[in-house]
Amino acid sequence: MIRSIIFIISLGIYSLAAADTIKATIKGTACDLCESAIKDTFRAQPEVKTVDVDLENKLVTIQTRQGQTMDDRKIKKLLSNAGYLVVAIAREKQ
User: How does pLDDT run across 26-39, given as a tens digit for each residue?
Assistant: First the structure.
């Protein structure tokens, strides 16, 4: 019983410290300038460790810093302010 409780607490602590990989599917990207603008926007956010833009697949992949995340509302706002439409957002814990 005590081992189970310790295991559950450990998982909770680990998940709080884990980083997120966030994949946003977007519309409106067309060129290298789009890629550069998106990267600059997300690199300026303190919780973002890395950002990658795949123009062909219309996918923005954001890796957050350890123990930090970025909510969907903020991602949508940053992308829409830059002129892009967010189609979907998916998340993975690292």
Answer: 998 888 888 999 99
